[in-house]
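May I ask you to review the protein record following this short note?
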Amino acid sequence: MAKAKNRLIRNWARLQMLGDMAPGFCFGLDLGRRSGDDLYRSYPFKRHPVGILISGAMLLGFSIPLFSIFSSLPAADGELFSLVFIAFSVLWALGWSMGVLLIAAVFLILICGRETLRVREGRLILRIGIPGFSLGFSYPGTLIRNFRAASRDGHAGSTWRGEHLAFDFAGDRIAFASQIPATAAEEELATLRELFPDHAMALPDDLPKLEDIQLAGDSGSGFATEQAKAPQQARPAVRPGIEHSITSLSSLALIAANLLPLFGVLLLGWDIGELMLLFWAESAVIGFYNLLKMARVGKWAVLFFGPFFTGHFGGFMVVHLLFIYGFFINDPNAGTDIPVDQVLADFIALIPALLGFFLSHGISYVSNFLGRQEYLGMTINAQMGQPYKRIIVMHVTIIFGGFLVMALGSTLPALMLIIGLKLWTDLYSHLKEHGSRQVNPAEAVAS
């Protein structure tokens, strides 16, 4: 299973390295042949009763929690606890609904699914879906070779198709048309070969090869994180000619943003509660920019991964907010009820400092992720998990510092200590994430 997944990741990375000649994703309405099409075909799927029953049962089972969660929501009473419970339930439902939608799509495809082939403007477009809507890929005809009939092949993942058709695209095998009779297969192949004759010239010598794509963890350690599964061959560490250090614009912006809370402590009388709430809000800013990164990396795939990330990350955030109010802000002698109006007033007071963090992470997004092309070779599932490591390290540090401040008393030196700890870990994580090597802030300053 792991080998098949790694091969799929390698092959997808190899195809994306084709640049403008890579397969293009397409989805939307599919209402039959249109003017300008050189060819249009619709191939029905073979129906699998067992698969239909299993997917239908899974759809029913996964839908019950989704609908039951809304029936158990409490009435909004203007208190933080109720608001957190409602927000967590909605965010959980958002993430869970992505799985339900995926199972529903499989169920509908098994019942009434079909595969369509369209030839238009020198491209071959294969899409899978239900009548009226489908999704798939568009292949440039210049890299298409060797249309042929094929039999089921477990190694190629086409056992379910039975007798089918296939072609090669840049050396990759693409299958289509399930359970097609031999006579119909010959007629289809004759038409397709006429539209896409094998070119006299060979494929370009510089096409990326599957064996040249290496994954982190291939050295035999037996351990690879989701992020490590991004193909290193396709992802340069930094854009050539652009170095990153503690004096880079994004590093200086990060330092400035982390010093803004110091002015709040000195001039506005902030205590540990305001600091913890501000650092919590920064995590929301990081999540926002990670959604933008996911959209840049995965493009259309963010329509599925984005809501899942929002539900998972947002659920973590709302529970963490309740933790902050319970331990660092709310007076234990005042009871557990925290009015939402108080929460809103607390956030309004933090807007200037929060704006600083928003600009700091925005500068990093533009100058590093886009400017240094850190998105190259990154997969969307790896990008989805990217912020967690940094946020966990940051929040473990500030929570430890928060309890230390409570033990020492909310004095100016203690508050400056937690600001310094947060700045240190944030800068370390920033340089480690965006630098070409692991950098310690003290080492960067010394150099």
Remarks:
- The beta strands are 24-30, 39-44, 114-120, 123-130, 132-140, 144-150, 164-169, 172-176.
